[in-house]
Design goal:
Layout (H helix, E strand, L loop, with lengths): L4 E4 L1 H5 L8 H12 L3 E4 L5 H10 L5 E4 L4 E4 L5 E4 L4 H11 L6 E6 L4 E5 L7 H9 L4 E3 L11 E8 L1 H15 L3 E7 L6 E7 L4 H11 L7 E5 L5 H6 L2 E4 L5 H9 L26 H13 L1 H8 L2
Parallel strand pairs: 1-2, 1-12, 7-8, 12-13
Antiparallel strand pairs: 3-4, 4-5, 6-7, 6-9, 9-11, 10-11
Amino acid sequence: MHYRLLALDVDGTLLDPAGELRPTVRDAVLAAQQRGLRVILCTGRRFRTALPLAQALQLDGPIVVHNGALVKDVTSGQTLQCQYMSAAMYLQAQSLLRQLSTPMAYIDAFHENVDIITEPVERAHPFQQEYLQDNLAHCRIVDTLDIPPVHGVVLMGIMADGQSLHALRPAIEQTLGSQGRVHMLLNKSYQGYILEVLQAGVSKWQGLQYVAAQEGIAPEEIIAIGDDHNDVDMMRRACLGIAMGNAVAEGQAAAEGGTGMKDEDGLGTTPQHKARPVLYPTSLGITASHDIRWCLHLRYSVAHRNA
């Protein structure tokens, strides 16, 4: 099997447990590109915080950020594809989320130096306050979020303790139904968890599909590596989905049982052959040099692994 695109999650996959990009990892990704493998970062991060990593890896062209809601050009910062929240979804989300913490509205305004619109920091959960204090330079503080911003809203989210977010999540999912998508993720850089609401249909795979289509790359030519709930779609639908050893159970199941699909919704498609995944014992940040080099040789090793 010849693979042409390697989709990499960032936190928990590309970075080590301290959130650092190790030199061995950087060198392995550079080597992958030199051998012709297209590397695309697919992350829940906003463009501003993902950009330094893309630059360190000498990536050009597109990057999938905000869990697939945006595809941005690394060099220009131009938005190549977007899936903004509707005004109705925005109003519902902010009303539901503020039961626990004042929401953060992430917007697509990189060149205006603003990423987040939110209410006064003291209204937020203490875990979220720490995050906002560290990112005030790219926040716009408003009296109320009751009126949708002029800029496109990428997603809305709050940060809090896991117990409180777990209790709130079912009510949000029930209220939004099929109109919205809810992610609950471990906050790998701050305390607690993150609860995010996006427009229905938004996923890393959806963003990755756009990038692949623009470059003439088919799903059966894609490897996707991740560890968290927001990586499940791309690990399941790529021809080769690889779950990290530290992956959530849903992610490991997706890599073990998924099949590559030709379309986002899977209608009218047939399962593609999927190679047996490898579950690494740690994140790529520990042994990425070996792991990514292993991916470079998949065209030779897959036949042997499936023999």
